[in-house]
Write a structure and sequence with these properties.
6 strands, two-stranded antiparallel sheet, single chain, alpha+beta
């Protein structure tokens, strides 16, 4: 049992079971309306909103509370164009031979190809970097822990926060992504994790007619 130094009281509201169930149902319904969007409106989104979404994402738990993430928000049109050009060059190689036939077949229902206009159309690109270590003052490389898990949770919170606020997102994974580190001049301890276009969906935006797995397909209960 630890002493109390360095600890503060937990801010927590305990609710009755019926209220908790209703809150959970409402949140599940809200998130069920979330879809990945590939057609964005160029309508502007204030940076103040992006700030708050990243603030929410940064509340995620992390190994040893190292918070091993950096969110780079890109709204500059010239830089977005350069990111699109570099991403499309990688995607041309992917669709032109890197991807297996099975992978390409799985992508067909989504209607994706090597062209990525959303990288310029969306008002913001949020590039998530994972910090694999920290460099201390004397030059020692101090490791971070459970980096992929921690950054994955933070990214999920970012996507949920954006949807809750009224924005659409896309989880984009051009592979390889090293060009993002170079274009954005990130330090040696960071690696690109995910590229998220963010903004309003284009008017008349269509998305694939997909169905989510049912609860019994994704959950096993032992009681």
């Amino acid at each position: 049992m630890h002493d109390h130094e360095g600890f503060i009281p937990l801010l927590f509201t305990r609710r009755a079971a019926p209220e908790m169930v209703e809150r959970a149902k409402a949140f599940a319904a809200e998130m069920d309306a979330r879809r990945s969007v590939r057609h964005f409106s160029p309508d502007p989104v204030p940076v103040e909103l992006i700030n708050e979404l990243v603030r929410a994402a940064s509340t995620a738990p992390s190994g040893a509370h190292k918070q091993p993430w950096t969110f780079v928000a890109v709204g500059d049109p010239a830089l977005k164009q350069r990111i699109r050009e570099a991403a499309e060059a990688e995607e041309q190689a992917n669709y032109g031979g890197r991807m297996s036939e099975e992978w390409l077949e799985d992508l067909k229902p989504l209607g994706t190809d090597a062209l990525k206009p959303f990288l310029e159309d969306a008002p913001w690109l949020i590039i998530v970097f994972k910090r694999v270590f920290e460099v201390e003052a004397e030059g020692h490389k101090h490791p971070n822990y459970y980096v992929n898990e921690s950054v994955g949770i933070a990214t999920g919170l970012l996507i949920a926060a954006a949807h809750h606020a009224g924005l659409a997102t896309l989880t984009h994974t051009p592979s390889p992504m090293n060009f993002l580190k170079e274009l954005l001049r990130r330090p040696d301890n960071e690696r690109p994790f995910l590229l998220i276009p963010m903004g309003f969906p284009a008017e008349g935006c269509l998305v694939p007619d997909l169905r989510r797995k049912s609860l019994d397909q994704v959950m096993v209960v032992h009681k």
